[in-house]
Amino acid sequence: MPHNSAIRTDATRRAQVCKFVDTAHSYGELRRTVRGGELSRRPSNSAWRAARATKSVFRFADVLGPDFNEAGLPKTAALFEAVDHDAERVAKGGKHFFSRARPFIASRDVQPIVPKRPGDDYHSYPSGHATFGYLCAILLAQMIPEKRDALFARGREFGMNRVVDGVHYPSDVEAGRIDGTLVAAALMANPDFQRDFADAKAQVRAALKLD
To answer: Is the Cα torsion angle 85, 60, 185, 179 positive or negative in sign?
Structure first.
């Protein structure tokens, strides 16, 4: 269950501070530039594309190593599953409020390189993946401050991949960063979450042999 029912679904309205100009043309130029370099060094198989579109805290294993995995960290998996519900609720509130079309709906020149899910044709702002990615980076950095810089870099990549993939505008990702920060602050002020967080932190640090 989500930890903090007091997290307001209209929190993303604060993301109106983003002042990006995301026309289909300017977005397309950015996407072609970034994606060209990205695809030159990434596999193009369908399994990779599906994994790239998956929201999971364990995608941070490329920073934390193979011992950071769902099978060995059940408390951590449960914590971040609940965190995902909280993040999703906030992001959906913003999506319904702004009702911004996805880039590939705004322009036929934009072709997504990851599988589209039901509902992906609509509601681009804010990015739910970016919200979750930044939120995970913030929480993991609290657990493992030794990896703080790398975790935040991975969180940024988690969000910007959605631009490269053709399913979000840069400002969607920036709004997700704001939302992720708001949700993290609300969760860390919740006593129930603090207890579960402490248990997961101990589990992660033991698994990674950091204590």
So the answer is: negative
Specify the amino acid at residue 211.
D
Q: Rounded to whole angstroms, how far apart are CA atoms 147 and 154?
A: 11
CATH number of the domain within which 145 lies: 1.20.144.10
Q: For residue 16, tell me if it sits in a domain.
A: no
Give the C-alpha separation, 15 to 180, whole Å. 11
Domain housing 112: 21-207
**pLDDT-based confidence at residue 188 (cuts at 50, 70, 90):** very high
Instruction: Report DSSP state, residue 102.
Output: P
Above 80 in pLDDT, residue 115?
A: no
**198: Cα within 13 Å, side-chain hemisphere:** 5
Tens digit of each residue's pLDDT (9 = 90 or more) over 64-89? 999 999 999 999 999 999 999 988 88
Alpha-carbon distances of 159 from 16, 151, 207, rounded to whole Å: 18, 13, 27
Q: How many domains is the chain partitioned into structurally?
A: 1
Residue 166 lies in a domain: yes
Which two tokens mark 32? 């072609």
Asked if pLDDT for residue 156 goes beyond 60, the answer is yes
Distance CA 128, CA 116 (A): 14
Among residues 84, 138, 117, 100, the alpha carbon closest in space to that of 23 is found at 100
